[in-house]
Amino acid sequence: MDGGRCVFTAARRGDRDLLRTLLLHRSVEERSDRGLTPLHEAAQAGRTGCVREVLSMAAASGVFIKYVNARALNGQTAVFMAAAEGHTDIVKLLANAGANINVKDALGLTPLLAAISNRKPATARALIRKGAEVHLTDASGQSCLHLASAQGSIELVSMLLRFCALNLGNVKQKTAIYLAAKNGHHECLEMLATAGANVDIQATNGNTPLMAATKAQSEPCVQALLKHGADPNVVCSNLWPQLAIHAAARLENANILRRLAVVTRHGLSSGEGEVSPVFAAVEKPEMLEVLLKEGFSPEAQASPDIYDVGSPLGLVLACMVDDIGLNYSRSMTLLMRAGARLTEECWELGLSDPCVLDLLLAQRCEDRGKGPGARPLLSGEELEALVSVAEKDAGEAGSWLPALLESGLDPNALLVPAFLEEAPSEALTYLLEMVDRSTLSRPLRDVLERRQRMKTWTPPAHLEWVPPLFHLCRLRLRTHLGPDVLMRSPAVTQLPVPLLLHDYLLFADIKAPGDPSSESPSD
Predict the structure, then answer these.
(1) Taking CA atoms, which of 237, 375, 430, 438 is between 20 and 30 Å from 474?
(2) Residues 7 and 99 in one domain
(3) What stretches of 152-253 show up as alpha helix (H) in DSSP?
(4) Per-residue model confidence as pLDDT tens digits over 437-455
(5) Are residues 197 and 311 in the same domain?
(6) Using CA atoms, how far apart are residues 313 and 147, in angstroms rounded to an integer?
(7) Average predicted confidence (pLDDT) for the chain
């Protein structure tokens, strides 16, 4: 037994003289505890002299070819082991001795595939010259060209282009050019595309080489693919209509996104089964800014099957309300400055969260500008959407009404029966304190009188139908300047009126619902 171990040790260590002496008294077919012959051991260790010695002994035994191709427990032969380790001279020696260079091991690898997998280009080249079959694939369907392209071996890809099928897919239908793109090997990709590889062929998951290059954030690969005609408008997912630009919008390479934005169809918004990349970019403000500058609309609509919100701004506000841990305020700013409208969906989200509403109104106040030519706080369409939501959410008006009026919303916009019917007592009083009550229509007065009778609203004693003259004067001033202008402190401080009137003109004497110093509704 000790002598047996010495045989394998001598083969591994390259002690040819000792190996010859031991083999004179033992069979070359003897196996180690690992199921290896002396030839396996010598070939794997790269001991050329010992390989020659064992082959000489085997030739004398009369079982030469069978012995040369003997398999270890994992199905590997001596030539396989030598190829995997890159022992080129031994591979040539064994091939000349009759070794089967296309034999597969238990994992489906051939010596050539093993050499390429282990980045042994010289050995791979020697095998090909000896007649190794380049079209054989491993258990996952990968050919030599797949492996060489994935590794970025320019030398091997250049050599294999003459023999291999360019558009052969593995079990996931990923081709050589796909794997080159996925791993960012633009030189190999360029060679494959120039040779005629299909730049738009899709894997089983729908991904194209362009999508793979985008996910790898490889600018050279993206550029090369587009140069060779890759279509950026190919849907690259079996789950939803994702293009390469959607992946780029979620990543961090602005150059790739900018390049794709130039060539991708901009009309991706409300079409069936479509979604704008603007939705994908809301978590990455720097990417969102690129898309908006390249002309993608901030008003894009989404398929309800993909997003449960109607617009990018709606998605941003929903994330802010959910407080999912990311700062979306920058994205909100970018969208609003690009012209995103405040829809009913936006108001529903804003009114549900005081912090979000404050940020939204502050941004709108900043965007509208200053001076006589400043835009109004809300467009007519936005005001209509707000009133619609306010009517439905009147019961919670105490939490959001002060913020709206203090930002400059005209309180007269909320003088509608549905709101007056449902608003909490304090919120209703607060609203009426800021309008000319003498101008209320008969239907509105009927609502207020009915609430008084039902004791769902008790106005304070000083609240008369005809307001005092000084209140009518500040309302006139509000009308002249505009409510949103008047409610800004800088505008008031520039008026030629005594300093003592500044707070009054800002309606500071009217206490908001929930203010500890405000009167109780029952007073």
Answers:
(1) 375
(2) yes
(3) 154-160, 176-182, 186-194, 209-215, 219-227, 244-250
(4) 999 999 999 999 999 999 9
(5) no
(6) 45
(7) 90
